[in-house]
Amino acid sequence: MTDKRLNERRTALPRTAAPRARTASETATQRLGRLLDLVPWLLRHQGVSLEEAAREFSVSPRQIESDLELLFLCGTPGYTHAELIDAQWDDGHIYLANADDIAAPMRLTRDEAVTLTAGLQALSSILVNSEIADRTLAKLRAATTAADPGGGQIALDLDDGSQHAVMTQLKEALAGRRRVHLSYYVATRDETTERDVDLMRIVNLDGQWYLEGWCHRAGGVRFFRVDRVAAATVLDVDGTPPPEATPRDLDEEVFVPSDSDLTVEIETSPQAAWIADYYPNEGVRRSANGSVRVTLKVADPALVRRLMLRLGGDAKVVSPAELAIAVADEAQAALAPYETTA
Question: Which CATH superfamily is domain 162-238 in?
C-alpha cells in the first residue's frame, strides 16, 4: 500500500482511543480464533451493538473495539484500500463490509484433498488410537465424493513388508492387553534377541516410533525402536505390566543411563568431534584446536570398541584403562593379518 493510501486508512479510523492490547490471560492463538469467528458473525448481524457483540464472544466492548481496529487493517492479498475490510462502529453499532472472501469457508482443491486423504490414511494405519484420524478421513471422503463421485477413494498401499506387519501385531497386543514375543535387533551387540514384553504404550519421538513395555528378559521397563523389531507375535498370555512398571517421563531424556552402566571418557580429533553431538553424553570438553573429550554412559562396552575401530586414529579411549587396552588389543588383532602378508 502506498503511504498516501495508508494515511487515508489511518484518517478513516473512528475517533476512538488507540488500539488496546488484548487481555493479559489471552494468547495470540485464542485471539486469532475469535477474530476468525467474529468476521462471519458480524456479516450476518449487521448493525449489532458493541455490547451485544461483546456478550456473544464473552469479552468486553473495549476488546471488541480493539479487535475491529485490527480487522480494519486486514484483507486479501494486494492489501490496498479495495482489499481491506471496511469496519464502521462510530455510533456504537457495527457494520462490516468487503469481508465476504475472508468469511467464506476454505475450499480444498482436488490435489489438496487427495494429499490430505493419503496422509490421513497413512496416519490411521499406524496410530494405536486412530479414532480422530478415522473420523476426519470419513468426513473428508464424504465431502470429496459429494463434489466428485469416486474422488474420495484412494488406493494407497501402506504395506512396506515386515514393518507394517509388526506395527499391526503391536497394536493388536496393546489393544487386547496381550503379551508379545519380539525378535529384537540390539545394535550395540549387533545381534537379534528373543524376548517377551508386556506393552505399555507406543509413542513417536522426533519422527521415530518406540515401544515402551515391561521386558521379561531384562526384568524392567525398556524402550524398543519399532524399526528394529524383526518380528512380533501376540501371545495368548495376559500382557498387563506389573505394578512397578512406570512409564518414563517423556519431557525428560528418552534414554536414561542406569547406575550399572559403564562411564567411558573418549578423546577425539576435530574430524571425529561429531560423536559429542550424535551420542547422548554426560559432558563434553572442547579444546581450542577443535578436539573434544566426551564422557559417555554405555550399557555394553562393545559399542565403544566398534566405534573406536571405525574411527581409527581419530579417537581413543582415555578411561577406563581396561577398555582402552581391550580396544588396542582388538585393533592389533585386526591388523595382524596384514602385517603377516607384508
Answer: Calcium binding protein CcbP, beta-barrel domain (2.30.30.530)
Dihedral, CA of residue 84, residue 90, residue 92 and residue 93, to nearest 10: -50
Q: What is the pTM of this model?
A: 0.41
- Quickly state the pLDDT bin for 150 (edges 50, 70, 90): low
Domain with CATH 2.30.30.530 in the chain: 162-238
| Partner residues linked to 319 by β-bridges | 265
Q: In the beta sheet, which residues pair with residue 225?
A: 210
**H runs (alpha helix) in the chain:** 3-12, 28-44, 50-57, 61-71, 100-103, 110-126, 131-147, 162-176, 275-278, 301-311, 321-341
Topology of domain 262-341 in CATH is Alpha-Beta Plaits (3.30.70)
**What is the residue type of 156?**
L
- DSSP letter string, 118-175: HHHHHHHHH-SS-HHHHHHHHHHHHHHHHHSTTTT--------SHHHHHHHHHHHHHH
Residue type, 312: G
Q: How far apart are CA 170 and CA 199, in angstroms?
A: 8
Higher-confidence position of 114 and 23: 114
Quick check: 159 pLDDT over 50?
Answer: no
Output the nine-digit C-alpha cell for 284. Answer: 563434553
Q: Say whether the peptide bond before residue 320 is cis (omega within 30 degrees of 0).
A: yes
Helix, strand or coil for residue 272? Answer: helix
- The yes-or-no verdict on residue 21 having pLDDT over 60 is no
Percent residues over pLDDT 90 in the chain: 15
Eight-state DSSP code of residue 66: H
CATH of 3-103, one of 3.40.50, 3.30.230, 1.10.10, 1.25.40: 1.10.10
Contact 137, 125 (CB under 8 A): no
Tell me where in the chain the CATH 1.10.10 domain(s) lie: 3-103
